[in-house]
Amino acid sequence: MKEIGVKYIVKNITTRNKLKVDFENNDKLWQITLDAMSESVFLIDLEHKILQCNKATLDILGKSNFNEIIGHSCWELVHCTTAPINWCPVNRMRQTGQRESTVQILNGRWVEISVEPVFSDEGEITGAVHIITDISARKKAEDDLSESEQQYLTILNSLSDAMHVVDRDLKIIFQNPAMIQWLEQLNLSSDLISKTIFEAFPFLDYNKVYNEYDKVFNDRELLITTEAVKLFDRNVFTETIKIPMIREGEVSHIITILRDITDQKEAEQKLRASEEKYRYLIENAFEGVWVIDSNADTVLVNPSMAHILGYSAEEMIGESLFSFMDEKAVKITKNHLEKRKQGISEERDAEMIHKNDKKVFLRIRPTPIFNHLGKYEGTYAFLANIIQRKSAEQKLKESEKKFRNLFENSPNIIILLDQKGVILDFNQLFLNKFNFEKKELVGKDFRDILRINSGNTLTAVEQYKKLIQNGKVEPFELGITNVEGKQVWINLQASEIEIGNQHIIQVILQDITEKKFAETELKESEEKFRIIAEQSFMGIIILQNGVFKYFNEQAAKMNGYSMEEIRNWEPYEFQKLIYPDDRDFVMAQVRKKQAGEPDVFSHYQYRVIKKNGEVIWVENFSKTINYGGRPADFVMTIDIDDKIKSDQKLKESEENFRTIAEQAFIGTLIIQDDKVEYVNNALLQIFEYSHEVIDNWRKNDLIKLIYPEDLQYLREYRKKLRAGESDIKEYYSYRVFTKYGKIKWIDQFSRPIIYRGQQAEIVTIMDITEKKKAEEELRKLNTLKSELLRRTSHELKTPLVSIKGFSDLLLTVHKDKLDDYVLATIHEIKLGCERLENLIQDILKTAELESESVELKKSEEDISFLIKLCVKELQGLIRLRNHNINLEIHDKLITRFEPDQIHLVLSNLLNNAIKYTPPNGKIKIKTDQTNDTILISIQDNGIGITNEEKKRLFSQFGKIERYGQGLDIISDGSGLGLFITKKIIELHGGKIWVRSKGRNKGSTFYFTLPLITQNKE
Fold first, then answer.
1. 246 contacts 255 by C-beta, under 8 angstroms
2. 170 and 197 in contact (C-beta within 8 Å)?
3. What is the tens place of the pLDDT at every residue in 273-317?
4. Exposure string (b/e) for 742-756, b if CB count within 10 Å is 16 or more?
5. Distances (CA, A) of 328 to 324, 334, 743, 748
6. How far is CA 670 from the centre of its chain?
7. What is the average per-residue pLDDT within 807-820?
8. What's the angle, vertex CA 715, arms to CA 711 and CA 721, rounded to 5?
């Protein structure tokens, strides 16, 4: 055995020494290999000391030489700490013996840090290899995609129209709150998740609906249909929009939006009945009435209109509007009809042709017609005959035109002066060019108006003398200062002319400022190009005859070559940069560009092979320039590899967003820098405007739509919202005007977003006009109900006091005269009285809270003391149930509240936790505090609450019956306790909610109170 052991040891040492020699011989080769890698790689020992690293590590750690890295601890350079951190991937690698990684920000870049263990021959970890990869581009793409998907979810849940999503098996996987509400209004089951369309809606036509969904899955296009169903003796009409959700080129899900159009259908019937009344008025009007459709064909004319043009109404119906006018009038009218399509109404004069071929002059007051989807359907107009006035105006215009046509339409500035240089007249171009007002010029000296620069004064004087002597001067250049104080260069020529026996000087001016400054700008632009090119993030190249005549440092870096290597390339050697599959196309563009052929692309994308073999996508912009007197290609190239990879996902995400937004029935707009950047069709329908009008709106245009009495309220609300106050709703309701003067109630939700890389605000708007009317009626009914409960409860109290009093009398004074059976019966009567008395107290409390007349008497109190008091008061019930009460509350927690009311809240919640938790249970009461809020939670491990029970938990008489379910709990109460609790918390400006994972998984009730003290007030 000893001999065998010696042989084993000798062999092991020999092998290890051989490996050591091999490694030392190849150390230089390994360093060259590591340096060629673009990722940071370094080796550490078990003490976290760096033993070896590559050149990429210098760049990513921001160091200039290896001495600043070798021998230093990795936590010092990577995590900037003085000791290892708990979540260090090296520590985790040593525990698991496997590769570990983490993601963090290093020197302003997102990086992924991976650690790979290094094992000895005996299988023990002796060190690790660190790899650091720059993932900034990938991180940005992930963030963009996450933000876009979050926008979808926000929009889906915000839709006011019912909406659900089905998968390829036609199973419903999502439904929004509006869908649940709509189904409940129709007395249909709202629990649709995991059901097929036909299980959820058995009354649908199976073949019709199946074929519609199959069409959307196959065609990948949205489908709009109208359905009519009879439910509970009532006809229900719906407009259904099926929108495909495309993932990786295939339809994965379909969004179905349901719009109840029953009211609209009924309204259409009423509208048809009223049309007959309006037709009678039109037929008997003295003014002409003319209605055309979207193709400008005549739909309706009244007798007065037909008489004006000498036709009968029957002769005009169906004829084109343009058949009653000449070519000039047709062109003008078509331009005006384009404005009608934009929702613009303009009163104007027009010419039309009488049946006897004479012109008829009319005054037109048109109004465009749009359908409920905002689509242009035609125009109706009132017309009046103005032939006498038009005839007089026409003669006057013809007279003036003879004298001013040449003067006003000259392409040059013309000024007329007297012999002293005083201005007599000028054309409009003079005013436009130099921003003069007419009143500033007439009667003024020409030289004072132009303000000749001091350096040109002598020239102007000499030329004026020549004009007086010869009656004419040749064109010359003159520098002047305009009314804005800017220097302007003009070309001036003048001559003496005679008009009506009066000698007048005619001056003709031409602005040559751009020409004078062109040379200076050219020199400056050349210098700017050099600076920009050297600092640009784009690769810039000038290519001539296959040689890079100029290229910046970024062009070399992008391709992975040095500047010196590129300078030494042979003509057309740059082709090796181009990916083989793209090479023919790119070189064809180069040849066509240099040959001056017309069918050439100046902007395209292709792949590049870098020196290290990496293939990347680049975007190329090029144009032909003159370089050294010969044509050359000016090329700009940018690395778009990360963009190409992320664009496809982002494009699908954005397309889905736009499809949903444009087909939704909730209004959406985006405001950026006080300008309306985006609106959807639903918003246009709410306000009755067209896209063309709103596209140029700013924030002030939207403010004008707000009902004046609500404007101040909105300003106060937004002020509170910006201040971060917690006691305000996430939306606000107010009134607005539509384009046609209607008053509507809307709910507005808004939140900040990043839009096109900058801060913006997305606003969603729901038309709640009908809801407001319903709320008003409901408010009246609630008031009536509360008054009824209050009166009934007071009436019940009187006989109840008598019953309870006589029960106490029999149980105390006459106890000895009664047998045990009678005493037990009277005791039950007394207990029933107490339960009924508690119910009456709850009803009275509910009526008081609903009356909105409660005035809280707040004082500065310690809520921790109140919690302890409630626990002490319920000790008897706690011992009876043998519960363990755990208090994790502050020693003292001061805020302002009404003690009696909050005492009732705490008692209700703690009482429920005790009653609905079986014996030997656990209850925890906890308090938390932020800068402006107190949070109290009461957690139990009792019978829990299902999702269906949560929906009615805080409603009036929302008690959930537990009898016969085999639960060891105390199930009594009025069903009003949690409703009262919720009302009290909301009166204090707080919120209350419950969380439970379901039956027998316990419940936690939370409520908040604003943190208000005398100092804060």
1. no
2. yes
3. 656 666 766 777 778 889 999 999 998 898 888 888 999 989 999
4. eebbbbbbbeebeee
5. 12, 10, 42, 49
6. 6
7. 74
8. 140
